[in-house]
Specification:
This protein has a domain at 9-147 and 179-202 and 266-279: NAD(P)-binding Rossmann-like Domain (Rossmann fold). Helices cover 44% and strands 15% of the residues. It is built from 13 helices and eleven strands. The chain is globular and about 55 Å long. The structure holds NADP nicotinamide-adenine-dinucleotide phosphate. NADP nicotinamide-adenine-dinucleotide phosphate binds at residues 12-19, 38-40, 58-60, 78-82, 91, 110, 146, 148-149, 152, 180.
Length: 298
């Protein structure tokens, strides 16, 4: 990936999983100059040692943002992981306004598939509001509507394999799961090359239902795994009984409700269009992590 466009490039949230990976991809592409922002500059000392300018920025502290974005031409704003209702939108809006005031020429933002009012996902409104703020700020922008990370199965699949049951409240809904690596590659490509204002659906190569995932896990692990669809209220109650905070359980179940409703059943060619490489399928991802999902019996 090469950049036809001029830096300085700036990446926010650079100590997060996605942000850090985008930083590495931009460095691999030898694009620069590169500025990164984070709430934890101490975690990025290795980048500073490699000539990256590391700045402190916390979107919940707007007074930190003018200096954070100063001098940047092209900016990737990584959405935050704040669970406080409405806080994510306020944070993102503050970042967008600061970037626009600093005179940046292009803003890339990591959004969510179909974040409109009909999405059951509890934080979809934060993304829809941010997209609107991005349009309103008048700066050319790329909205990357990342579908659900395939990587989320690294958290749920081991238990499903161990118990033989994959529980979800997703009905027969299907999802265009996309790996975080493909999201990072798409974000790096957009940061370095996208022009004008466009919305991209960042997805994997195909639609996958929970029953498909259960079948893949069974085949990969050699153990029986069955998908058991639950009612949203029952799944929420089970999660809380297992010790999950009620707010987090509600958020996770709202994602399942979105799957059941079909708002995440989106597949596009955007990853390949942006990066030149086809996205990784769910099966290929799970096969690559087979050892983590189901350690061989000793
Ligand atoms: N599509 C999906 O399935 C999916 C799954 C999980 C998350 N996401 C979204 O994608 C984003 C990136 O994913 P990830 O895997 O990299 O998550 P992650 O590792 O949890 O990273 C969280 C990110 O939020 C940033 N952040 C949190 N609070 C902030 C604040 N007050 N000001 C500025 N930045 C703040 C962090 O930046 P620093 O720590 O460097 O300050 C970091 O980049 C998440 O934050 C979330 O919005 C999507």
């Amino acid at each position: 990936m090469t950049s036809s466009l001029q830096g300085p490039f700036l990446i926010t949230g650079a100590s997060g999983h996605l942000g850090r990976r985008v930083v590495d991809l931009v460095l691999d592409a030898q694009a620069g100059p590169l500025i990164v922002t984070t709430r934890h500059p101490d975690k990025l000392a290795d980048l500073a040692a490699r000539g990256v300018e590391v700045r402190a920025a916390d979107f919940t502290k707007p007074e930190t943002l003018a200096s954070a974005f100063a001098g940047a031409h092209r900016v990737l704003i990584v959405s935050t992981d704040d669970l406080t209702p409405g806080q994510r939108f306020a944070s993102h809006k503050a970042a967008i306004e600061a970037a626009a005031a600093a005179g940046v020429r292009h803003i890339v933002y990591t959004s969510l598939t179909n974040p409109g009012a009909d999405s059951p996902i509890s934080f979809a409104g934060d993304h829809a509001g941010t997209e609107a703020a991005l349009v309103a700020c008048g700066v050319p922008h790329s909205i990357l509507r990342n579908n659900l990370y395939t990587d989320l199965f690294l958290m749920t699949a081991p238990q499903a394999i161990a118990s033989g049951t994959l529980y979800a409240a997703a009905g027969n809904g299907r999802v265009g799961y996309v790996t975080r690596e493909d999201c990072a590659r798409a974000a790096a490509a957009a940061l370095l090359t996208a022009e004008g204002s466009r919305t991209f659906d960042i997805t994997g190569p195909g639609l996958v239902a929970q029953a498909d995932v259960a079948r893949m896990l069974a085949e990969i692990s050699g153990r029986p795994v069955t998908y058991v669809p639950l009612a949203p209220a029952d799944l929420r109650q089970g999660m809380v009984q297992q010790g999950l905070p009620a707010e987090l359980a509600a958020l996770l179940v709202s994602i399942d409700e979105a799957i059941a409703k079909g708002t995440l059943a989106v597949v596009s060619s955007a990853v390949e269009d942006l990066t030149g490489r086809a996205p990784t399928s769910v099966r290929a991802f799970l096969e690559a992590h087979a050892g983590t999902l189901a350690p061989p019996a000793s």
